[in-house]
Amino acid sequence: MRNICDQKLASIMENFEKVWQRSCSSSSASSSSKDTNHEVGDPFAEYAIRPMVVTNCSEYVVAHARRELLPARQFTEVSLLPHILETMRKLGLNKLLRLQSYTWPHLAGGAGHGAMIVGAPGSGRTFSYVPPVCHAVCKAITESRSTLSGLKPGAWQPDQQGAKALILVPDLRRVRQVSALCHALLRKAYKEDWFTLILNVPSTKSSEFFLRLLNGVGCLVATPAQLVWFWQEAPGLMRFPCLQFLVYDDVDLMSVEQLQGVQQVLQEILPLTHSPQVVMVSQSYSSTLMAKLRALNDQPALVFGDIMEAALYGGTHIRISLVRSSAKVNAVVQLLQQRPPDNYRTVIYCADDWDLQRLEMALNDQGYDCLPYYQTSDLAVREQVHGWQANSRGVILLCTDNCPELSIRDAHTLIHHSMSVSWSKFKMRHLMLSDNLHNSLASRANPVRVSLHSLVLLADNNHRELPRLVDFLQLRQEVDPGVVAVAKRIRQEMGKAKSDQKALCSQILVLGKCYDPVCPDRHHVNHLDRRPDYMPASGDVKVQLVKVYSPTHFCVRILEHMPLQGSWQSLPSPAVQELRMQLKLEKEAPRYWPLVVGAICIYHSTITKERVRVLKVANIQNVNIVQSDLSVEVQALDTDTRIFSTTCGRLFECPEAMQREPPMACDLRLLGLVPYSGERSWTKEDCRNVKYMLTQLPKEHFLQAKIQFAAAGTLYVRNLVAIVYADQFKVHLRHLNLAQRLIKTTLVKRCEKATNMILNFFEDVFIDKDIGEEEEKEKDAQESKESVESEPKGTVEDPEKHPTSLLSGRCLRLAQIALEVGKENQLQQELLETKSTIEDASNNQMAKPSTETKEDARPQSNKDPLSELYECFMNCARLQLEDKKESVQNSSHAATDPVDPANQAQIQIQLPHNVVRPSVTYYQTTTTLEFQVSLPEDDYEYQTMLFESQLFFRAISKSSELIQQFILTLRFPLGVLRHHIKGRTVYISITKSLACSYPLAFGEYRFLKPNHDGFDKQYDPRKRALQRLSRCLKDFGYIKQDIELQDRSEESEDEERNLDGIERGDYNEIID
């Protein structure tokens, strides 16, 4: 994380506010976007979260404290500074959320008022503490300003050093989000250059960071690892004597080691005169963390936005029972016998009124009195419910989720006869127990506590809710192992039935565990994660680096494999495989529909075709209607292993033969290496450094690794080394040991815990692999035998099947000749074999030795014809390059007569793979030369420049790495360059120095095409004027009648194609 100064943050947040206003559809946000400045390239904008855009907001909150907490009903009841309230209104915060209505007044109470906020992600937890923290920081800045007003300019006050508020977040992404929110509220607080409002910890040691801390900081936002790091850099320098707030945001996502390191640092930097207000934000309640908060603040508060979490905190025991639908009544009766309704106020939830009526009849038969509350109940039933609340008298209340008017908060037993239609409604059922929850913060001891119980009955029709419920309860209480096993099996079955095959979570593949509670990726293994037979499971491999995703994650291509106690085995060359793949892809294929998850198809991009695997498909309403704009998530198989989204209109069917071909690329990860700083990911700068390290290796090198295991299309290795061959000593030397280099540079560290967790995660895959290995081998052997018997030996592909090819020029002609010669040789060989068969039939006695002699004498070759052809092309190109080098070196006129650079560029100069020529049309008028550049997408940003007689154009996309670029040389005097973009077309106009028509010889630029409509605009007025003059002259008899001229000859197609880029005039018109 780089150091961001106050001025930079101010300009960033101006754009940050505008981004929020653009994303907001309300009128208040739209009207406030007129007077803000916009800055391109805002690093905070992509991390901005509009406060009111929340997904798990609850209208009810459980709040406990030493005394009763009174919520604020509107903004006027909250004592916040005016500019903070104004900024919140501009950000779209027009009303208080229920969670914020309790936390803002309490935290505004001053010293000693701490709080633990428990809620689900996206429920407004972060904004529950940000405004009060910013309010306290602004007041502290104002007080320090009055203190410094009497000092001399430039004087330093040691009591003002450090941060006024310290906010700790679990990862770097949250650092940027919280920093953006705080600066949006603080940017109008102070305008001094030496004071920093928001400060982040840089990834490298920086003296500016420590100077800013000494001069004073409003809010310091950092991760636990960053806090420990900068303290270790200057252990005796950092003190926070004016610290007002200490915030742990997402404290449940911080590891025990991180919290211990933070605690050691806080013992050194916290002020000795007072304790800061402590705020802890978590998804689940922790008694250990609550004890630490109570030790620092004498007025703590506990605010629950998650009602089910509050029920568990208050002593409710939640039990899951797996029963059949017919046995639910017996399970209910059994619990009623254990907890009689006369002693425990009981509420039973049903799915609907029909389910409620059946349960009422069943319980009446068992001798229990029930009070059913239907959706159609009248006021008389409401009066009965009020009487039941005063004294239940052993009556059981039956209700559904569709009765929000019931305000019952003092139940003791809660029975879920049927599950809710949503998870949020199920959690809200526990609000009926809220008044009986134990308040651990109350100053006075509570009266005799009554045990609270919640029974969940799951049958065959609602067993899909079991995995989520088990995951929730496992973190908070003991769950029956049998129920856990059933939930795991149900999750696997649901994963197979889903129409998606999401990629595995990246945190699991690195750390062995996911710490993100709302991670959208997959967190369980399935049959597709088993190691395929074409991927090596052990031994050593030599690989070719394709892409660097992170310091421990790479995309590679396997070149050679050496099994355990074996020798090196060469695999097909990647260049040969790519050539073969492109030749097969030239044939047009039909659209792929309907889409099936896990299928292999062909993705057509703007310039290439490649194989991809379908991972996720949007819901298809009707398979009989072919769509072209359906969203699809796919993973590349050959160029790299990237995962990206596209539309189904770009996917085409892949032939079965190509589907059986193994992927050319695979993932490679260094097992057991985790970020050294304790973070859960690396920065982009770290990835760039590792990429530079691996791309600056000597030319004659190869990468080698030892495989630990393979799963999910990934090779897990312990290390990756670069080896070079020393010609002088005739030995191979290890040039780079990547793991040691990363550990030495304190970028990664070994973690055996992560290694064991990754192995345990893939344990089921290894077991399934061992069970089905023999069956798969027998099946593949049978299929390969049938395919070998059905296909003729020595077949060569017909070049007529590939009318177009990626090869061009001399290489294309050589390829065609080679394929034709191969076909002729094959036909001759078949004729010879037929002739020998006929001779064998007439001479039975000599047939056998003669045949054996011929077969033995015939030379055998196991080499692939395409491989030999590729090697031939490479040798020819290499010899041509050597000839040119020798001709340049041996020429005595090298200094005076240099070699034409255009001739050298034919082989030496090659465009990068991501640079292409756009489609350009041109025409000229008398005064200007016009170009129209067509871009493939709308998100391209272009630049163009006219330097002397050359026109430069370059366009870069925001969503892809493809670059549109061309350079055009003009051979006549030019003037001013003008350009603009409209849609996907860039219009370029160049004013001529002389107003006349020039011959445009653009035939050498294949991407340039004449715009005949533009030329017609130039010649039409002249034609009409000349035609009028011609008619007048004919009427007066000054000229003879026109004589029709016939074309002398027709130009061939080749000549016409070569003149495609040259402007041709009309020879039949009259030129003045």
Q: Which descriptor suits the 3D outline?
A: globular
Question: How does the major sheet shape up?
Answer: 8 strands, mixed
Number of E-type strands? 37
Strand content: 15-25%
Radius of gyration, CA atoms, in whole angstroms = 38 Å
**Straight-line distance between termini:** 71 Å
Average pLDDT figure: 76
SSE class: alpha/beta
Helix percent band? 25-40%
Strand order of the largest sheet: 1-8-2-7-6-3-5-4
Low-confidence stretches: 1-57, 787-810, 841-863, 891-909, 1043-1072
| Number of H/I helices | 30
Can you walk through the features of this model?
The protein is α/β, with parallel strands linked by helices. 35% of the residues lie in helices and 21% in strands. It is built from 30 helices and 37 strands. The strands form seven sheets. An eight-stranded mixed β-sheet has the order 1-8-2-7-6-3-5-4, with helices on both faces. A six-stranded parallel β-sheet has the order 9-14-13-10-12-11, sandwiched between helices. A five-stranded mixed β-barrel has the order 15-16-23-26-25. A hairpin with a 6-residue loop joins β20 and β21. The longest helix has 33 residues, at 810-842. The two termini are 71 Å apart.
Structure in a nutshell:
Helix content is about 35%, strand content about 20%.
Topology:
Elements: H1 6-23, H2 27-31, E1 62-65, H3 82-90, H4 98-107, E2 115-118, H5 130-148, E3 163-168, H6 172-186, E4 196-200, H7 207-215, E5 217-222, H8 224-233, E6 245-248, H9 256-269, E7 277-282, H10 287-296, E8 301-304, H11 307-313, E9 316-322, H12 328-338, E10 346-350, H13 353-365, E11 370-372, H14 379-390, E12 396-400, E13 413-416, H15 423-428, E14 452-458, H16 466-474, H17 481-497, H18 506-511, E15 540-550, E16 553-562, E17 569-570, H19 574-585, E18 600-604, E19 609-617, E20 631-636, E21 643-647, E22 651-653, H20 656-659, E23 666-670, E24 673-675, H21 684-695, E25 701-711, E26 714-726, E27 731-737, H22 738-744, E28 748-750, H23 752-761, H24 763-790, H25 810-842, H26 844-857, H27 865-890, H28 901-904, E29 915-916, E30 919-924, E31 928-934, E32 940-947, E33 950-957, E34 963-969, E35 974-982, E36 985-992, E37 1008-1010, H29 1012-1035, H30 1053-1058
Helix pairs in contact: 5-6, 8-9, 16-17, 25-26
